[in-house]
Amino acid sequence: MAFTGRELRSTLNEDGTLRLSLEQVTHGDPAPDAVVVQVEAAPINPSDLGLLLGPAQIDTLREEGTADAPVLVFDVPQGRLASMKARLGQSLPVGNEGAGTVVAAGSEAQGLLGKRVGMAGGAMFADYRTLKAREVVPLPEGASAADGAALFVNPMTALGFVETARREGHKAIVHTAAASNLGQMLQKLCRADGIPLVNIVRSEEQAAILRGIGATHVLNSKDEDFRARLVDAVAETGATIAFDAIGGGALGSDILQAMEAAAVRAMTDYSRYGSDQFKQLYIYGALDLAPTTLNRLAFGFQWSVSGWLLMPFLQRAGGEVVGAMRRRVLGELTTTFASRYTRAIGLAEALNPEVLRAYERKATGEKFLIEPGKG
Amino acid sequence: MAFTGRELRSTLNEDGTLRLSLEQVTHGDPAPDAVVVQVEAAPINPSDLGLLLGPAQIDTLREEGTADAPVLVFDVPQGRLASMKARLGQSLPVGNEGAGTVVAAGSEAQGLLGKRVGMAGGAMFADYRTLKAREVVPLPEGASAADGAALFVNPMTALGFVETARREGHKAIVHTAAASNLGQMLQKLCRADGIPLVNIVRSEEQAAILRGIGATHVLNSKDEDFRARLVDAVAETGATIAFDAIGGGALGSDILQAMEAAAVRAMTDYSRYGSDQFKQLYIYGALDLAPTTLNRLAFGFQWSVSGWLLMPFLQRAGGEVVGAMRRRVLGELTTTFASRYTRAIGLAEALNPEVLRAYERKATGEKFLIEPGKG
Q1: pLDDT one-digit tens code per residue, A214-227
Q2: Which of A284, B19, B262, B327 could form a disulfide with B235 if both were Cys (CB 3.0 to 4.6 A apart)?
Q3: Interchain pair A297, B83: CB under 8 A
Q4: Chain A contact probe: residue of B18, B292, B311 with most A CBs at under 10 A
Q5: Which of A300, A304, A307 sits opposite B300 (nearest CB)?
Q6: Could you tell me the domains of chain B?
């Protein structure tokens, strides 16, 4: 039996246009160790937008195609094509994670038939997805597709931050853009595990969200005394590691500087190399595309600024650690790791210009869920 | 028996002046495990200037004191005092390393009496220095004080770079400000050990120095096609680690970008997270005091930019590795690790305004040696 369905594709063309469309894809009989899953829910994560929209200029959006087969086209500045050479002309499927029901299973995977599963691995903005059986996780009894659609990216990232901090010997964490879905998860996780967390946000509305779930250290970077309060919060918690979703500008540098200032407060002897307190900044997002500025003379020589990505982290952590992380996510699916969606849309709706502009805005507190069954 | 002699001191005062002077210090009988060394030679390393002159404005230099007891005074901008709070009012001795003859030894260190030794640990710009016996290294037969004066900072740093690269799994190295004394040492070391080294300099004169000692990859960052040639050199050598003495500006970022471009050349599939090639930039100096700018979108998420300092590296490396490094330095003291001095000056001469301006300039190829015996 074969299943034919739609798959959302993003294509960057050499002529400087980016094209979104729904392609028909047929899934044949799965291999012995594989399954076909009917996708019931897939979240739109910030990390999906990079592949979906890439370097497109949103205000150049135009509609082509039909209501049944919508197509959106955008212009891309020529200057940004060079770094995208490797994807030119390729029709790329989108969607990091999702949940659905197994509708076909290979001979070795029959136990999964009819089960509702969570999954990750790309191409989830689709009606069907074929995967290896070991790539899906059966959801706990009673869990909805929405409950299980986002058990990978944000929960594993939040756990990955805590695990990274532990492995590298830090006892408290600083997090930016902290009112995000991921940020709220991290706050709940750190509270449960007794790890002090300093949350940095950019508005009072965001600060209120975090205080509402029990956050004690919440700083608004727009406040005039932000830097002084950051030093105090870092000194009080002992935070020496930070995870930064913003990337551009000097906020990361300000955090390292606050950590150094807190360490120097505790020093008795002068050292022109600064404190011997090692400080780590991980950049895991790019909410600000500007270059990163490091005022490194303000934080000595004991520091590191690094990229942080989930997949390489999981590879380094190894199967045992990853297994324990997965079990914890399943166990706390509707508590610590619950995602809250503000809007559920169909697959074709994802290519509605107004809807796209809404989820592209990444507004505080808004989170979209694609439910292909809705149309 | 007591030895009384001069010690060069740097004092940063709250009134915003920096004062250099020679103080008389008396060294009494050494403890059982200690020795008194008459200092015969001490190099002026770039790393000494940070403590000696700190944030002083060189063009505000004025002479106070007498020919026998020279004193130099400089102004320091108020804005730069805040980060120097910990040294305000302290009379700090200067000079990271040197060589001399043991003139007094404790009961457990009699074997060192009369020996010529190399040493590190500060306060070397002086007539005498008291140290633990284990802090000095007897020089090979026939080695002069000048031969053994700089066996610590530059040789251990060059070896530290190679050891760091090896430990972290890199097979080739990029180095900036590569015509420095340290850079030439690193070139000789990498050549001897068969480790490809990409040297980046800022003038043709500097490039010629490196080619003269057998360097094959020498790039002038002032050349118009510098970036393209850097990608080629990185691709050819497979360099994925860089040591940067400059720190400020975007050169470090350019190096990471070149490493990424070389890695992407070899990729077949597009990934919006960039290549999975890990790239490491270590900043170990501050020839440019400006902030560091990272155009991180051009090099993906698999990278790290960190401070690199010799002492913490040696602590992490452990006694066995450090012992092997020391033995190698002594064995190759007059070959791989030979320092070339362009001018020897007395201790009082170091406080002569014209001489100070000359060594403060850090001109290419110039290297000063203090010989306290000269006066």
Answers
A1: 999 999 999 999 99
A2: B262
A3: yes
A4: B292
A5: A307
A6: 3-150+339-370 (3.90.180.10), 154-314 (3.40.50.720)
